[in-house]
Design brief:
Layout: H1 5-8, E1 12-19, H2 24-37, E2 44-49, E3 54-60, H3 61-73, E4 77-82, H4 95-105, E5 118-119, E6 124-125, H5 131-138, H6 146-154, E7 160-164, H7 169-177, E8 182-186, H8 189-205
Parallel strand pairs: 7-8
Antiparallel strand pairs: 1-3, 1-4, 2-3, 5-6
Helix pairs in contact: 4-5
GO molecular function: [acyl-carrier-protein] S-malonyltransferase activity
InterPro entries: Ac_transferase_dom_sf, Acyl_transferase_dom, Acyl_Trfase/lysoPLipase, Mal-CoA-ACP_Trans/PKS_FabD
Catalytic activity: holo-[ACP] + malonyl-CoA = malonyl-[ACP] + CoA
Length: about 210
């Protein structure tokens, strides 16, 4: 049985790994193998696949440090960088948060999206409204398939990305992966308002 953060009462961590695309599948299998060999109370899992050159692992501090060392020793990761986070996101240690999410979503009615909404759990569009609460719950503990989600878009000739949210982490990942694409980060309310005005002007000019 997987223990939760509160049950473990140990330090947790997340670490970003610099990798090569050809190693991603092997890294995933290696982490599963490492996790199965850890002593009781320790856990490490693949939290994010952010791009062809970056992945993130999450779990207890000792397990994350150990896995980082093994992956670097086996030349699957060039280096590792500890992330300043408050919890071990996107791994089984977050199950209490997933349980709270499930309870909170029970009384919410969802409609099937009218445009494609790609979930980072499966890297494919949501097909029906009944999937939404399950996917929202699962994304709390599941690996974030960001690289595959973007690959899904690229396979459909999408080359313009509007990135909404604080900081520019995702925008920078996209620019490094696809330098010829149009990447527009909207990091503040002012950015969003300005972009909205630009769209209105563009629509008026097409009338």
């Amino acid at each position: 049985m997987t223990k939760t953060v509160s049950q473990l009462k140990v330090k947790t961590a997340m670490s970003a790994l610099i990798v090569r695309q050809e190693n991603l599948a092997e890294i995933e299998e290696s982490i599963k193998g490492i996790n199965s060999s850890l002593p009781e109370g320790e856990l490490v899992e693949l939290a994010n696949v952010n791009s062809s050159f970056q992945a993130v692992i999450s779990g207890t501090s000792n397990a994350v440090d150990f896995a980082s060392g093994v992956l670097q020793s086996n030349h699957l990761a060039a280096r590792a960088l500890d992330l300043p986070v408050s919890a071990p996101f996107h791994c089984k240690l977050m199950q209490p948060a997933a349980d709270m999410m499930r309870a909170s979503l029970k009384n919410i009615k969802f409609n099937t999206p009218t445009i494609d909404v790609i979930t980072n759990v499966t890297a494919t569009p949501i097909k029906s409204s009944t999937e939404i609460p399950q996917l929202l719950e699962k994304q709390v503990t599941a690996t974030v398939q960001w690289q595959k989600s973007i690959k899904y878009c690229k396979e459909r000739d999408i080359n313009t990305f509007i990135v909404i949210g604080p900081a520019r982490v995702l925008a920078n990942l996209l620019r490094k992966e696809y330098p010829l694409d149009r990447i527009r980060p909207l990091t503040t309310v002012k950015d969003i308002q300005l972009h909205s005005e630009e769209l209105k002007i563009k629509q008026l000019n097409t009338l």
